[in-house]
Amino acid sequence: MHILYRLPILPALLWAAAAAAQISEGGIPPSRSAEFSGVFAVDPLPEPFVFSTPDVQQWFEEDAKQPDQGRFAAPLPKVDIDPLRHGRWTSLPSGDRVWRCALQAPKALGLVLQFDRFRLPPGSRFFAYTPDSRRILGAYTAQSCLPSGQFLIGIVPGEKTVLELYEPAAVAGQAQIHLHRIDYVYDPAGVAPLDSPDDFGQSYACNVNVNCALGQNWQTEKKGVARILMVFVNGTGWCTGALVANTGASGDPYFLTAHHCQLIGLQPNFSLWRFDFGYEAPTCANPAAEPAPKSVLGCERMAYRHETDFLLLKLNQIPGSYNLYFNGWNRSAATNALVQTSAFIHHPNGDIQKISKDNNPATIFAQIINWGSGFGSTPANSHWAVVPDEGIYQPGSSGSPLFDQNKRIVGQLHGGNLDTVNCTVLNSWFGRFDLSWDQGSSPQSRLKEWLDPGNLDILTQNGYVQPAPTIVSIGGTIQTHWGAPMPNVLVQVTGGATASTRTDASGKFLFGNLPAGLNYTVTPERDTNDVNGVTTFDLSLINKHVLGLDTLDSPWKILAADANASNSVSTVDVVEGRKVLLGLNTAFPANGSWRFFPAPTNFPNPGNPFTGFPGGLPGSALQYNSLQDNVTDANFQGVKVGDVNNNANSGG
Known about the structure:
The model is unreliable at 1-8, 15-22 and 192-197 (pLDDT under 50). 48% of the residues are buried. A hairpin with a 5-residue loop joins strand 28 (401-403) and strand 29 (409-419). The chain contains 7 helices and 40 strands. The chain has 3 domains: 21-190, Spermadhesin, CUB domain (Jelly Rolls, Sandwich), CATH 2.60.120; 213-465, Thrombin, subunit H (Beta Barrel); 469-652, Immunoglobulins (Immunoglobulin-like, Sandwich), CATH 2.60.40. By secondary structure, the protein is mainly beta. The N and C termini lie far apart (64 Å). The strands form 9 sheets. Strands 1, 22, 23, 24, 27, 28, 29 and 30 form an 8-stranded antiparallel beta sheet that branches.
């Protein structure tokens, strides 16, 4: 969007069909790693699936009719990609496998990928990258997935993208991937150079980084301000907003931004809105490398009102380790003396965090404001008027909190206009927090019920640091190494609390109401029915492995063959298995009937899984120290001792 000199008043929003990286764990796709270079040398990347070239000129003509809501990309028609019908699977020596699929949209400057099914089982990893691997997005894991099953990845620069899924053998076939939409970037404004992250460093140089001298006294408040990546049916965009305190100091993740942010596209998809906290330069200078934000994905809309342009969201769970700040507010009846000086913290053009400051009193703007471009008008006296002395704002700054001299929120940025030649603000308007408090006709159009749940009716609320959780939970799933759920496994938690439970029919378990901040150890156990799954065929397979005639084809089977727990496989294991099978021993003398390993367990040496781990094989327990967040992935894989052809009953 262009900001015009002394011409129409424009909301400070940014429409962009671009998206920054989603939450990911980093790493290198298996096909690009040295470990598997030999495998993929004989199984090269398949030819790309090529989409038809769109009519880019038509898109430019459509954009020209709405210059104030410019887009950078548009959806390609008929996108329908999944691992069952496209790409190629490659098997690894361990029994794990990798799916790769190349996509090409001719002459595209970049591609934004949207999935309507994106579910990854434990241990799986998903990547999207350029064919030359100069830009790799991922790894995305089970912890990256949303409950809705939707997902978004982008921008991958250029016209070609490679998708890659790694699946451990234990969960083969359990991933659900369906790419149903690709946004084709056709405007150079929508994609940064390949060596520059998306929208990083794209704001005007006259913006002031939050860690410069101007922001020295705002180091606490900035921790509650985030950049918002907004997703719509017809594109994505940037805005700004802030966590806002409630009178109960409960840490409910309410987030204040601008109402018009949800209007810049069609049908906002709040489950894919992303909130990037701590996206800032470490010092006053612009950094050479993009900082890593603390991101929260997904939210729920709670309330909004056009007249004061506020939108209140409730974010999905915020990790306790983020150490964010819930900003306070002032809802006193507004007078011209209320805001003696003001400041706002924001993300212009989706760039790193900036700060602007007005050393003069804010005033109530006594005129109707016509926003144009389909955004309507707002009543007289509904907005603060502010002209900062230092710093400016740009599209993407919309929704940024306006703080008074006591560092309490009194409004959020709606828009205004700039002198882009001299890089100064001509005027800016902020919707008034005090009017947003109770002037709506229902809780869905005002702030009161959400931010004052106890009806304390106070006029000011101080901010507070992100409250530490008082209770946490630990849950997970236990499966056999070949992917069958294991019901009725005894699971114990020790440390800060002691409790036991058993897995349900799908292999899941949960410990709730554990005191937060303490150390915990989770241990599964099953030592019954040692003969389960052990047959003469297993003994024959183990004997052939010992003699080198036909080696077992997975590290899990080799672990199962180690009947005497010696961290090796020998004829002694065959003897121990025979004694159990014949009833001479009722149990393996040195081993339980099942062994458990954290999921995923990746073996450095699949042909000899007993080696390569510092300190020996991973123990059959998971440890969590000073636990501050709920754990949902305390997953284990079970190995039935003596069963090397995977025919044991997983329930007994």
